[in-house]
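Issue 218. Parser rejects a valid record. Input:
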Amino acid sequence: MEKWWNRDRWKHVTRPYTSADVKKLSGSVHIEHTLAKNGAQKLWDKLHRQKYVRALGALTGNQAMQQAKAGLDSIYLSGWQVAGDANDSLEMYPDQSLYAANSVPIIVKRINNTFQRADQIQTMEGSREIDYFLPIVADAESGFGGVLNTHELVKHLIEAGAAGVHIEDQLSSAKKCGHMGGKVLVSTQEMINKLVAARLASDIMDVPTIIIARTDALSGALLQSDNDERDQKFITGERTEEGFFKTKAGMDQAVARGLEYGEFCDLLWMETGNPDIGECREFCQDIRSVYPNMLFAYNCSPSFNWQAKLSDTEIRNFQDELSELDVKYQFITLAGFHSLNYSMFDLAEKYRYSAMTAFVELQAKEFQAQERGFTAVKHQREVGASYFDQIGQICTGSTNLSAIKGSTEEEQF
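Output the parser choked on:
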């Protein structure tokens, strides 16, 4: 294990524990976590081989499958989207860590199950054209508690097949979306402890999980505790009714935290309130003055009004400019939420006024998209009817109960 830790992959990573500690905590049976391990290795390779890795937030298995078919590099799994429409609490929540903590691992598992089915279908059909097993980067929020909660959550994400996780430096009990107000930061040391808990979990699971440390310190103006000397220079001296310390939010606070987190993570992410290349450049350059090989992640957020902030040319060049700063993981957190809601609203509104014509127009677009690799127009085949026909035929030796044979899909599509 120590030989593995000495590879270039870990050259800037600090582990405040030994390989003996990991061995002692790993148990006597070695369990393989193939999807997580393959995904982590694949993502690490893409981060270093490609100009940057593009990802969209998905909240269902089918959304993730369409992203794979369209040729994207990775899947991002947003806690915001899980809170809003895909949590195991069966509720619609704002992004405030209100949902059941096992919700994100369940969606990771659902996406990987969809990938497995899609891969089984294409393999049965004699094709391996698409790599469906895109690496999934999952939102671990603030860990849903302390270091033990964080440790267990990361283990569950790895078991579900996540390639990477990100953890933010907010207080779990007061957690907010990065673009909300009222964010409370934990101490620098507590965030480091959570990053260590995540790394220890990945080492115990024997998976080189990509760990992304996110700081909300650019806008986070409240602090849980003043016990960490590194945080004290940002405290204003004022306190809230809840007992939190007010701080001087801004770039200096964000950089200070990024520099402290750097040796415990693989990528750094500073949550921002505007699509500002200059702001990102300042952060990246300050971090790279200490960690010259550090890579970064960036949320190309739907919370930004892009056209109100940037010209069309600036929007078109934005991600390329980020990549020049070694911002290697670039993602749109809420792409699934916005595409799902707009597309259904648009169809429903048209259907209200033009009845079947509205759906036929959508279907016509599906037919046209087949030239570009879209296959869901044949919805029975898309979800595996032919795959289970094959299983049934092998088990019974008969084709009499075939679902596809004699179907309207076989006849009309």
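Fixed in the parser; the record now loads. The longest strand covers residues 210-215.
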